[in-house]
Write a structure and sequence with these properties.
146 residues, alpha+beta, Cytidine Deaminase, domain 2, 5 strands, globular, binds zinc ion
Length: 146
């Protein structure tokens, strides 16, 4: 799977170009690695009613879910930054990390797959990989409802 990491990161960067972010100008792309080798991407989708904005990670996960692939997600890469005129994001110096809501959504996927999902957070000079449990320690998850 690690051999696919450059491809996964490129997919996240490419997806960021499709962001609909007219309000923040901040384009984010996410790319999910599936067991099958397939990559599922998402881009942020803003809304004039700001609270309805969807993050790139959420879009990608919802896309995988609607395709019946929720149980195949093994990793995620996230890339983004302020958009330039050609709509490609200017990747920041600091790694981009998922927001709190997306960490919780990733927790659901992680528990479904019994996997501590690697989260590859892209920055200008490469990426940093965190495990989801590092980004969301002591998380509430499906097991809490049993
Ligand atoms: Zn988010």
């Amino acid at each position: 799977m690690s051999g696919n990491l450059p491809r996964l990161i490129k997919a996240a960067k490419d997806a960021a170009k499709n962001a609909y972010a007219p309000y923040s100008g901040y384009h984010v792309g996410a790319a999910l690695q599936l067991d099958s080798g397939q990559i599922v991407t998402g881009a942020n989708f803003e809304n004039a009613s700001f609270g309805m904005t969807l993050c790139a990670e959420t879009v990608a996960i919802a896309k995988a879910n609607s395709d019946g692939q929720l149980n195949q997600i093994t990793a995620i890469a996230i890339a983004g930054g302020p958009a330039k005129f050609d709509m490609s994001p200017d990747i920041g110096v600091d790694p981009i990390t998922p927001c709190g809501r997306c960490r919780q959504i990733l927790k659901e996927v992680a528990d479904l797959n019994a996997l501590d999902i690697p989260v590859h957070c892209v920055h200008a000079k490469g990426h940093v990989t965190y495990l989801l449990s590092e980004l969301l320690p002591h998380a509430f998850g499906p097991a809490n409802l049993e």
